[in-house]
Amino acid sequence: MAEEGVSWTFSPPLAPHFGGVWERLVRSAKTALRVVLRSKTVSEEVLITLLVEVEAMLNARPLTHLSVDPRDNSPMTPNHFLLLRAHPHVPPDVIEYSGSLSRRRYLAAQELAESFWRRWLLEYVPALTERKKGWTEKRRNVRVGDLVLLVEKDTPRGKWPIGRVTEVIPSGTPGDDTVRTVRVRTEIGEYRRPVVKLCLLKTVEEEDQERMVDGVTDEKHP
Fold first, then answer.
1. Where are the beta strands (DSSP E) in the chain?
2. pTM
3. CA 29/CA 23 separation, integer angstroms
4. Which of 74, 45, 77, 41 is nearest to 59 (CA)?
5. What is the pLDDT of residues 162-204, one digit of tens each?
6. 208, pLDDT greater than 80
7. Is 35 exposed, middle or buried (0-12, 13-18, 19+ CB in 10 A)?
8. N or C: the chain end with fewer CB closer than 10 Å?
9. How far is the first Cα of the chain from the last one, in angstroms, to the nearest whole number?
10. Alpha-carbon distance 11 to 35, whole Å?
11. At what angle do helices 44-58 and 100-130 cross, to 10 degrees?
12. DUF5641 domain spans which residues (predicted)?
């Protein structure tokens, strides 16, 4: 790599904040694992299976623009670069078990993976929200065209329910102009959701600015 002109710059010891985004992911993964495992003693097989599942979840997060149109291509993820596909999962029915013990260990690892997924969402989604300081400011309401992540407790593992705000619903209280409920369109339907159950990914103003930079000014939001 040195021959190709690649040089390495290392962070100093005991300074994970130098890592920025990737260190934040490491911290959220560690926190979720700590909560899921607690003081449990698991076998090496279960631990390895859990870590592989965790790796798959983290590498399934979207890196590029997320569309709510089912006709559009799926967003790029780290898995696309590593495996050339979005998800590395193998259907459970094609797995051969060597016995009841292996099956119990597999199911135990899957249960831990589900617990990790739910916990990691609690760690990762707030991290996304922190980048959008305007989300918590009263002067910036949710608006039609905003791209949001739906925070659902029943979200399947590795899935990211992305939607676009299609309607803002007034509270009905005189003098209260704060938007607390909206309608969101996803690739599978339209839902009415409270604002507290959404995570702002990109404002309509940011998308308009990107279109202007790219020279595309005649497109309308879906």
1. 147-150, 162-169, 181-186, 189-194, 198-202
2. 0.51
3. 10
4. 77
5. 889 999 987 777 777 788 899 999 888 899 999 888 888 888 8
6. no
7. middle
8. N
9. 45
10. 28
11. 30
12. 105-201
- CA dihedral sign of residues 160, 72, 169, 217: positive
Q: Which residue, chain included where needed, has tokens 């006709």?
A: 71
Assign 3-state DSSP to the chain and report helix, strand, coil percentages, each to 5.
45, 15, 45
What is the strand order of the sheet 181-186 is part of?
A: 189-194, 181-186, 162-169, 147-150, 198-202
Distance between CA atoms of 58 and 160, rounded to whole angstroms? 12
Amino acid (1-letter code) at residue 81: F
Task: Output the CA–CA distances (angstroms, integers) from residue 222 to 32, 69, 143, 145, 213, in the order listed.
Answer: 36, 8, 14, 8, 19
Cα 32 from chain centroid (whole Å): 14
